[in-house]
Specification:
CATH architecture of the largest domain: 3-Layer(aba) Sandwich
Radius of gyration: 21 Å
Number of helices: 16
CATH class of the largest domain: Alpha Beta
Order of helices and strands: HEHEHEHEHEHEHEHEHEHEHEHEHEHHH
Distance between the termini: 33 Å
Mean pLDDT: 91
Shape: globular
Low-confidence stretches: 1-10, 371-388
CATH topology of the largest domain: Rossmann fold
Structural class: alpha/beta
CATH superfamily of the largest domain: Glycogen Phosphorylase B
Largest sheet: 7 strands, parallel
């Protein structure tokens, strides 16, 4: 890692802020930290202590200051705002870059003197009072940020509709997975999968948005196949108990694996990947599956159609029949699986890399202030950040 130069230290620090995260947002922030510090840029990450424990931002060159922002609004948000203000008062920040709506709201309320950038990673799906509060937060964040970055085109459109003065597309690249450590047969043996038995994999937070109930209900129908597929879901989250009960009641051949750090191994053992979410931007697991050449069934929501193109089988959200039919068609057609694996790897080769993402951010930070390291304006080789 390149050490920050004295000049870059004088220019100030990039402050990255995130709320509670156990998955994609935390992984993305860690990837950005690694790229920025590698370019000699000082970085301070502010967020819940649990995110530092899980993602080890300091291990890739950042400093860390605890700012406890839970996943949902609470009266403690006032303390988070105060903690962020203290961190910024002690830090010559060149830019504050918040990731996600919750972090964006805390940053907006803290009123930093440095330019505020907010990356919108998720859509608001909640209803009732929580949904109303979240939509109010969206409006505050959209109008407070100097630049709103959307991880998918629909998020950019949402920010514009809510009054963002400058909204741009900023695709989030999935960090590259390490090479598998185990052979395919060893991975399958862990789950008792015999040679000709299909293994279907999904990876993500156990949250209602992911609609794993749809996958469980479809899997219950596959018990009558010969041999029946084995379905494994890697991830943790608040929906664990409900999903475990549903699996038991439906007698579905589904195993909840909890949090796993061996996704590359799991993909090496899988025959199919499945994403059944109500909404996603550029879901990291969908990217990982296509890169690994694993045929993917995914819902046609958010940024997924733009991400995968014709390299996956797309189905409507919430449609058990459609998931069932798509999986059966792939299991029954080896040539189709082979073709999807080939198209998936080719599609993945067209996506922005982690290095592209960092280069685009450096260009944006430079645009917002003359003292920011990197090109003075978006260069010809930098990926487009979309609408301005």
């Amino acid at each position: 890692m390149t050490e920050p130069t004295p000049a870059s230290r004088r220019q100030g620090t990039v402050v990255l802020l995130l709320a509670s995260s156990t998955g994609g947002v935390g992984q993305h922030v860690r990837s950005v930290v690694r790229g920025l510090t590698g370019a000699g840029v000082p970085v301070l990450v502010c967020g819940p202590s649990a995110t530092e424990d899980q993602f080890d931002f300091t291990g890739v060159g950042a400093r860390f200051a605890p700012v406890e922002i839970p996943a949902s609004p609470t009266p403690a948000d006032g303390r988070a705002v105060a903690a962020l203000r203290r961190a910024l008062a002690a830090e010559p920040a060149r830019v504050v870059h918040a990731h996600g709506l919750r972090a964006g709201l805390v940053a907006a309320l803290a009123r930093p003197s440095a330019p505020l950038v907010v990356t919108w990673h998720n859509a608001v799906l909640a209803g009732g009072l929580r949904g109303q509060l979240s939509r109010l937060a969206e409006r505050i964040v959209a109008r407070s940020a100097r630049v709103a970055l959307g991880a998918s085109a629909d998020l950019v459109e949402r920010a514009v509709a809510l009054g963002a003065a400058d909204a741009r597309l900023a695709p989030v690249a999935a960090p590259a997975l390490p090479a598998p450590r185990r052979r395919r047969a060893a991975v399958r043996a862990e789950f008792g999968v015999v040679a000709d038995q299909p293994l279907i994999l999904s990876v993500g937070r156990l949250h209602p948005q992911k609609r794993y109930d749809v996958l469980v209900d479809a899997a219950a129908r596959w018990r009558t196949r010969t041999p029946p597929p084995v379905v494994v879901i890697a991830g943790s989250g608040p929906a664990y108990l409900q999903l475990a009960a549903r699996i038991s009641t439906a007698r579905a051949p589904v195993t909840l694996l909890g949090h796993r750090t061996d996704v590359a191994d799991l993909l090496a053992g899988a025959d199919l990947a499945a994403v059944t979410s109500d909404w996603e931007a550029r879901q990291l697991f969908a990217q990982e599956a296509l890169r690994a050449g694993v045929p993917l069934v995914a819902t046609a929501v958010g940024g997924l159609p733009e991400l995968v193109g014709d390299a996956a089988v797309l189905v409507p959200a919430g449609d058990v029949d459609a998931v069932d039919a798509a999986v059966r068609s792939l299991l029954d057609d080896e040539s189709l699986r082979t073709d999807l694996a080939r198209r998936g790897a080719a599609r993945a080769a067209t996506w922005p890399t982690e290095e592209d993402t960092v280069a685009a951010l450096l260009s944006l930070y430079a645009e917002l202030g003359p003292d920011v390291a990197g090109p003075a304006s978006p260069g010809a080789d930098a990926p487009s950040t979309g609408r301005r």
